[in-house]
Write a structure and sequence with these properties.
Elements: E1 5-7, E2 16-19, E3 24-27, E4 36-38, E5 50-51, E6 60-65, E7 68-77, E8 80-83, E9 93-96, E10 109-118, E11 131-135, E12 162-167, E13 182-188, H1 191-198, E14 207-211, E15 227-230, E16 233-242, E17 253-257, H2 262-271
Amino acid sequence: MAGEIKTTTSFLSDPFLCHCLKMMCFLFLHTFPGNFLPVGASEGGIVGGRVAEPHSRPYMASLQFQGHHICGGILVRDDYILTAAHCKNRPLMAVLGAHDVSKPEKTQQRLKVEKYRKHEEFTGGCENDIMLMKLETKAKLNKYVKPIHLPELNGDIRAHVKCDVAGWGQTAVDKPTSNVLKEATEETQFKAECNNIWKEHFNSTQMICTKFSKKTGGICQGDSGGPLICNNKLLGLTAFTQENSCDNPKFPHVFMKIGSFLPWIQDVLKKH
């Protein structure tokens, strides 16, 4: 059985290690002891996969520190970005309208974050790993920058549904981060399959897990806070993988189930 969980933040972030057994979070520099890693930590990104068509996902945000990609994010309103709670370990800048984050593209909007609203029940463990960030100024909406619709209901997620994931993280554990947005296709799994692998670390009421192949690729460190898109609908938020084995198909990838958090999300958006 896997022992700790790896989240997926990216290069130059304080790598985040989510110890689900102890329900504690630790910040390390470049090393991740344990077995599970939140997908926001320093080694990751879409492994394999394909380069996304430029600006085909106008809701995507690159969350950066000092010009370096840390996590993914999802624009859900002109002034709010949804991401993983574990991504907030230092001040972040939101970059919208980007394809190649290494270039100052004319389509890009760089916006400061005014407030970070982590879920009140996020304690640094694996559950409730979700956060809304309020931007200092509203994004200028156009064909390059556009919010995605939230799911309408918290329904069951069927197994064997093909879903897309996307991000700018590393393309392999020993590879540099990707300058351009990449994407891959994964497939939802039955809850029982996820429970068999992740045991008590998998909470089926608020998590979704997916299987993938080395051929088609999938998420890895650097992709935390990015989307799981199924049938053109936003259903999940990238959360964690197996440490040092994000490309091992034996270990399903795990996402926060956005539908489970709809009341919380709507309450935050309504109040602000």
